[in-house]
Design brief:
- By secondary structure, this protein is of the alpha/beta class.
- The chain has 4 helices and 13 strands.
- It is elongated and about 65 Å long.
- The protein has a domain of 135 residues: Leucine-rich repeat, LRR (right-handed beta-alpha superhelix).
- β12, α4 and β13 form a beta-alpha-beta unit.
- It starts with a helix and ends with a strand.
- Strands 1, 2, 3, 4, 5, 6, 7, 8, 9, 10, 11, 12 and 13 form a 13-stranded mixed sheet that branches.
């Protein structure tokens, strides 16, 4: 009998794991969107969705209810003191930019489609649960890592002016706009982003850039990177052919090879090269 229980307990543990019982990481997901700030003065957060309530963390609560257009909720903090703001309801759109956020937890907002959180002080951002996300602008934050592998519906991703050294967009096949300028990337794989029309990757450390699969591209800003003449020529060779009545624009100034590269390669494909 003792031997039976000896083997039964580990077996039960395996069964529990396989049945999808909540993990510790699932347990710590809050009931709503939670953010922290120590800002003083007026604060505005814009939202869209249903049954929305905002707890401003200072005793004030705002019942927003249903909004199918951007609603600017506001509050005034009399002093600079850390506050925890909680937003509950079915939130589909959120703009919490420029309010000195140090933390933002959106894991509970599984129906979130649009998220603006730029110009804050966020060191991390978990969007793995936001699988409905179509637009994300988290620019002007000190983010070191950004994982968008679960956000396969993303059409617009802006993560400019962060501290990223890598960025994987291989799962984001619907991307139309990608902006990761002012980071520290040395390379980027865009082979899966065939719908891309606008690419901003200036002020990184890119030594090469290949866009042969990005047949819809209209504008590329890759200025102030580390591409020599050969790398720029290879980039020009990979450019899609544009129509003469709808020329593409590419910006290359600030690269090592900008003055000596073969701009005619791009021009013959109806691209205007800006140095």
């Amino acid at each position: 009998m003792k031997k039976f229980f000896k083997f039964l307990i580990p077996a039960l543990a395996v069964i529990v794991a396989l049945t999808g019982c909540p993990t510790d990481s699932d347990d710590d997901i809050p009931d709503g969107i939670v953010m922290k700030t120590a800002i003083e003065g007026d604060v505005t957060i814009q939202v869209m969705g249903e049954d929305i309530t905002i707890n401003w963390g200072d005793g004030n609560t705002e019942d927003v209810g249903f909004k199918d257009v951007w609603y600017p909720a506001g509050n005034t903090y009399a002093e600079a003191k850390e506050r925890t703001i909680t937003i509950t309801g079915k939130i589909t759109h959120l703009d919490c930019s420029i309010i000195e956020l140090t933390q933002l937890d959106v894991r509970a907002a599984t129906e979130l489609k649009v998220l603006y959180c730029y110009r804050n002080s966020l060191t991390s951002l978990d969007v793995s649960k936001n699988t409905a996300l179509e637009l994300l602008d988290c620019g002007d934050n000190p983010l070191l890592i950004l994982d968008v592998s679960k956000n396969i519906k993303l059409e617009s991703l802006e993560c400019y002016n962060n501290s990223l050294s890598t960025l994987d967009v291989s799962k984001n096949t619907e991307l139309d706009l990608l902006s990761f300028n002012k980071n520290s990337l040395t390379s980027i794989d865009l082979s899966k982003n065939t719908a891309l029309t606008l690419l901003r990757c200036e002020e990184n450390n890119l030594t090469s850039l290949e866009v042969s699969e990005n047949i819809e591209l209209k504008m590329i800003n890759c200025s102030k990177n580390d591409m020599d003449e050969d790398a720029l020529d290879a980039l020009f060779e990979s450019l899609p052919v544009r129509r003469s009545t709808d020329k593409g624009q590419i910006y290359i100034g600030g690269n090592d090879g900008a003055d000596g590269c073969g701009v005619t390669i791009a021009e013959e494909k109806n691209w205007i090269v800006n140095n």
